[in-house]
Amino acid sequence: MTPTRDDCRKLDANDPIAHLRDRFVLPQGVIYLDGNSLGAASKAVIQRARQTVENDWAQGLIRSWNDAGWYDAPRRVGAKIARLIGAASDEVVVTDSTSVDLFKILVGALKMRANRTTILGEADDFPTDAYIAQGVTEFTGTRFKRVPADDLIGTIDEDVAIVSLTHVNYRTGLIHDMARIAAAAHAKGALIVWDLSHSTGALEIAVNLAQADFAVGCGYKYLNGGPGAPAYVFVAKHHQAAIQNPLTGWFGHAAPFDFAPDFAPADGIGRMLTGTPPMLSLAALDAALDIFADVEMKAVRAKSISLTELFVALADEHLTAHGFTLASPREAALRGSQVSLAHSQGYAIMQALIARGVIGDFRAPDIVRFGLVPLYVRHVDVFDAVRAIGEVMAERAWDTAEFLARKPVT
Ligand SMILES: Cc1ncc(COP(=O)(O)O)c(C=O)c1O
Question: What pLDDT is stored for residue 408 in this prediction?
């Protein structure tokens, strides 16, 4: 027997991190299951955004680079993220977007393996990871090779300079074994780069224990930093003196305010900076991260597993007859904080669900994706969402011209 709505209420009543939901502003009548794409707004972020504009900028003006801690913000906020990924506080900096940071890391890491010509990736990785690798290899006269996830380790050879992977697959939620892949890469002399966009803030991660060389990731998904929040870069301490940032802007300079004619990289992680940080969005991310100071990632992960297990059990019981199949790993240990279901009418079904206030998303060709963010999603939300999917199917609510027509942005 799968849990009833009452069972779900009890699970929520006993949830040790249930109180964190009150720190977010969620619209009435909406079940928000898309925080793996854009995290929800917290009260702290709204308050900080207002303070940054009205006080720090409007009143403080240029003095705020020092007085409001703007200049140090990329490193200070990086240290907050470092705690979440098992890095030292001076191994992470917040800057640019994930795409740009990946570009910088791939070019820099290729130079550290100059006698090798291959970047190895996974066939089903998020497009920007592949596109950036394609651009980098085109400009550097190297090559980008993609293989299915199961073939990765067997494909690493002495020509592979970098293995570049997303830790949690955006489509299925499958978690790669960081330590195992890093060990295989290092055994052949290759470097490992992780995109942690779908991991940080949702999973327990230990980049240093897992021997990661480099990592990048998004600030606007599970970290709730707001639309287009800046991204972060991790460089393991032992690589910080060797890696060169190809985008040699003045914020990565050893002494930006000397205005010296020639570039000299900053010591340490600061060399991964490029230009002036986007302070409005960086301040928002800074405030968004404070919630993680009050919760252990172990508790976040435990709730995440409880939510995804519930979703899978309810989907098995109520949605299989409607033609859905589970596209995420069945084993909780291999699944990130999302559940993906495959259905040939997935696009229209998701549009019909969104019209009813259950917001997930669709990923071509046939995946409906539900991000279950432990900080603000409840078990009862999962119950109601699966019931809504069942109703949409029973009523064929998806089968209208409005929902069947694909729009360019979903
Ligand atoms: C794995 C992964 N990497 C990167 C990005 C986005 O990169 P950017 O912030 O540069 O647009 C996404 C966005 O969904 C993603 O899923």
Answer: 61
Q: Which tokens is 316 given?
A: 């098995």
One DSSP character per residue, 9-37 reads: HHHHHT-TTGGGGGGB---TT-EE-BTTT
Q: Which amino acid is at 409?
A: V
Is 200 near ligand 1, meaning CB less than 6 Å away? Answer: no
Do 161 and 195 meet the contact criterion of CB atoms below 8 Å apart?
A: no
Beta bridge partners of 362: 368
Domain ranges of the chain: 5-17+296-404, 47-294
**Which of the residues are catalytic?**
126, 195, 220-221, 369
> Tell me, what DSSP letter sits at residue 384?
H
Question: What would the pLDDT profile of 176-215 be if each residue is shown by its tens digit?
Answer: 999 999 999 999 999 999 999 999 999 999 999 999 999 9
Q: What are 297's two structure tokens?
A: 């990632």
Of 3.30.70.260, 3.90.370.10, 3.90.1150.10, 2.170.270.10, which CATH number belongs to 5-17+296-404?
3.90.1150.10
Give the number of the atom of ligand 1 that is nearest the alpha carbon of residue 168: 1
Instruction: Say if pTM beats, i.e. exceeds, 0.90.
Output: yes
The number of angstroms, rounded, from the C-alpha of 214 to the middle of its chain's C-alpha atoms is: 15
Q: How does pLDDT run across 369-393, given as a tens digit for each residue?
A: 999 999 999 999 999 999 999 999 9
- Nearest CA to 141 among 173, 163, 111, 180? 111
Do 355 and 31 contact (CB within 8 A), yes or no? Answer: no
- What pLDDT score does 405 carry? 84
3-state secondary structure at position 145: strand
Residues 6+ apart with CB under 8 A from 14: none
**pLDDT tens-digit readout, 79-113:** 999 999 999 999 999 999 999 999 999 999 999 99
Longest dimension (CA), the chain: 71
Report the percent of the chain where pLDDT is more than 90: 96
Q: What is the architecture of the domain spanning 47-294?
A: 3-Layer(aba) Sandwich (3.40)
What is the whole-number distance in angstroms between the Cα of residue 259 and the centre of ligand 1?
A: 34
Ligand 1 center–CA 13 separation, angstroms: 34
